[in-house]
Write a structure and sequence with these properties.
76 residues; mainly alpha; 0% strand; elongated
């Protein structure tokens, strides 16, 4: 295991799904900012509106439009 000596204000980038990690409890008036960049090779793939709203606080019209497209490509 590799342990980092992180200090307040440090930026750490890692593949969370593939890296064992834990998050320290925030105390006092400290604010924690979290960025969740995601990358896919398929430019048409994006989150469902519910997921985007619950994680990022909003969803775009494009989220809603693409949520109506069925995975089999058929139109009901």
């Amino acid at each position: 295991m590799h342990e980092l000596d992180l200090q307040p204000g440090d930026l750490q980038l890692f593949a969370g799904r593939f890296s064992m990690h834990r998050v320290t409890r925030i105390v006092g008036d400290t604010t924690r900012y979290i960025g969740l960049p995601t990358y896919v090779h398929d430019p048409y793939r994006m989150n469902r509106p519910y997921h985007s709203e619950s994680i990022y606080g909003r969803a775009t019209e494009m989220h809603r439009e693409r949520a109506n497209v069925l995975v089999d490509g058929l139109v009901d």
